[in-house]
Amino acid sequence: VGGVPSAPLKLTVGAAPANVRVTFIPPSVNQATDGSWHYTTQLPEPGGAGVNLTKLMVFGKDYTSQISSWFGATRLPANGTLSGSFIATCSTCSPPWDGTWQISGTDDNGNSNTWSGTVHFLPPSTSGTANAAKGKPMFKGRRNAVTLGSSNRH
Fold first, then answer.
1. Residue 96 and residue 149: Cα distance in Å, rounded?
2. pLDDT truncated to tens, each residue of the chain (154 aa)?
3. Residue 68 DSSP label
4. Cα distance between residue 62 and residue 1, in whole Å
5. What pTM, to 2 d.p., does this model score?
6. Residue 110, exposed/middle/buried by CB under 10 A (0-12, 13-18, 19+)?
């Protein structure tokens, strides 16, 4: 109704960025009888954009060179999941303690990001059904051992 006509509005909508999650199974891990914590790290991408993984930091230490051997690939497909099994020990840690994982990458739409997650390490379970142990920040990924110093404990 009356007024001055305006130019048409042009909207450009970019594709959604990748949404990598760093998750752990179980998220809180009891010590095992062998003196360590056994868990699985999963990297699901439910956002619909594939990601080329470019950096991996575990407990503050750079393990970028291990991405392929630990997760089987450096490319996380759109709506896909990469996972690896790990064993952590920490002789200088008194549970509970937390370990932070950070993974970085560039998605198919050119977006770069870093995603992180924290796994919780607990003392032995008193139920007898969980794991029990001692250790020194260290973990094994697909049977690859990595030793972390106590200064890397978070």
1. 17
2. 566 777 776 655 667 899 999 999 999 999 998 888 999 999 999 999 999 999 999 999 999 999 999 999 999 999 999 999 999 888 787 889 899 999 999 999 999 999 999 999 999 987 544 433 333 344 544 433 333 333 333 3
3. H
4. 64
5. 0.75
6. exposed
